[in-house]
User: Fold this.
Amino acid sequence: MAPTRQSELADLERRLFSYHQSHFQLSARVHLSHLTFEKGFRAWMDDRDNVQRLEKTLKIQGCRRLMGDNHVPVVVPRSDWERRVSPRYGNGIMPSLNVDLDYRLRALDHENLIAAARKKLDPEDQWWIVDVYVTDDEEDQDLDRDLLQKKFVQSLKERYPNDNRPPDGLIYERINYYEGYLDGPEDRLAANNWWVILQAVAGSKKGRYLRRFFKNAALHRKLNSLLVIRGLWEGMRIGLLHKVTAMHCDEPMICYWDLIFQTFLTLVGGRTDLLPLIDGVTVGLIQARAPKLSANDLQFLQLQLDEGKLFAEFEEGQRMDIWERLKQIDYPIPTLKTFFKDRLYLEVAQSVMKRLFIQPRDEKFTIDTGVYSIFDTAIPILLRKERLRADLLEFWRFSFQYGFELTDFQRRKCLKSPDNEHTPDQDTDQAFPLHRSAMWRHFCGILRARGFRPPGSMTQSSPAIELPRLVPCDYPEDPSQEIDAAKRCGKPFADTRQADWFALSAEALQQPETATRVSAAFLRRWVFKAFFGYLIDSAGSDTSVHRGIDADHTPIAEGHHPTAPAPPHTAAETPRDLSTLSPAPVANSFAPLIPDSAESLQRFGYIMHITVGRHRETLYLPIDQCFMTQFCEGLRQHNFQIFVFDVTPGTGYEVSTGMAGGVIHEEEVYSHYMDFPASELHAEFNADGPPRKRTQIDGETPMQRAMRWLEEQKAKTLGRMMPQIMDVSV
Assistant:
């Protein structure tokens, strides 16, 4: 967001004011039936809540039609003025307009107010005041005047005096459009107007949150791909975007957004050109409902269809085809609104996973990448991603299953209590029988068994313990009951603990999905699959994540949006079912994956093996002289000595005799890598090295301080290498 130059703004204001003065004709009465509104992004995403608010307002205070703030601006082409639309003067306070019966005036503002007034006013009193602007025909003006006219119309359309404030979804779309992220031209002045609207409330930090979100290109691009489904955006919450980025769970969130896109693409039979016709009312009615599983959901949606509220913008034949597909959806239909609620549940598991590694202050990477970094074998991160996804899936599963027991997060109050359902529940009758420390020891045992190294604070040698056996159960206990649609998203409730624990157990997730109702266990399994389908798919399943989506009959095409093209969604991106997964092996063989040439080594950066006592790490250093200088200074300050090593197959690493003593000075490291890019250096902690000034800080020994520094550098170099790794993966 660049600041507006006052000279630029003054020039535009002067031209718009002059245009307004020369093209304004009069204010006049007109019958409401002659007004028509363009259905832009705001109208498509609208769930009609603001119309209902205005209906209540007009019922209390009546319709104020003469006040200038409530006048509806309309534009009439010059060729139609005085011919199909003409003023009629009389003795009244306002002139009237004579309008041909088949002619509609293009209204630019107050759509919700007029919709509410049509219901409030008596049939014989259905009139309103319009401000008439006569615009030039396209063939009668040059490019500059055409641009000015578009700016003028834009200034009239983008006013929201009868809204509490423009909704977040509209603000997000308009800022993206005017910032040039979509297919429209960049318009700095218009973009700044919307940035101001976003921060209109005193103390609001939404502008800061949105700018921070834009810096995450992957999340920003993926979220923009959903703009083609305009009805989703009433559920947008810009005030939560800082939590979305701060969680560093990019992969799970992108997976959830992909599922949203694929679900709605399935409903329209794979026709991306029909996605923009899905309106906000429809999205609000179908979200979180599973019509194939729930008879109540099916009955509710059938009633909405019969009343014409469901998929109202589609032709009759298309609507019935969509209805048949909708009836086959057997999982809670995800939307942006459900995402921001389910994010709360993901946050619980994320708070467990982020403790497994050190996140550097100046280099941020995702939770998945951080967990891959603690695998106790020297292979590139990219290769770990290809082979360790089943392990990562297991860690996420355990974190979802016991996240509340491992952290201070609280479940929502019991489902059976209708009041204050969001109040943390303090009842511990169903609490897990093991202490939190024992649970963490068990989790660390899982990590070590799969070849991962827990962080230093969790490497205690206490023996791992076995968890109590879970008893199969579900909630509600009565098979004829189910959880209401309004309570299917977000953190689970206190009285569903037992069902949640079993539903997310490895045993339960390996079983084929046989749910016949929307229960707590079903919801826990579904939200886990919604976030982690990308890991489930890579583990070898070939079935759809939900039986309601038939992968063979869902055309996958590139989405199209008037302002935001959606990226391709391939079958490989579609989340998958857990039912066919096999347990991940404890041991893995990586020999075939280790690069065997200088060229392949070079792709992942320079290699350095670092040893502290009996502990050894292999780091892949970015090809960056500034970084290398700082890194080598850290080696010097922490008493490391650097050697040149050769890799001899079958003999391991041996000190090279090709250089004097095999020792290299810190200042020579970068030039050495430049001359010998496939060379592998070794830095070894020297306990007898010269003492440093900070040796005794916090009571650390030199070796402890070196170990802490090494852990920090491992995380830091991983963050620096991620762009190169991603380039190689692409």
Q: What stands out?
A: Residues 596-729 form one domain.
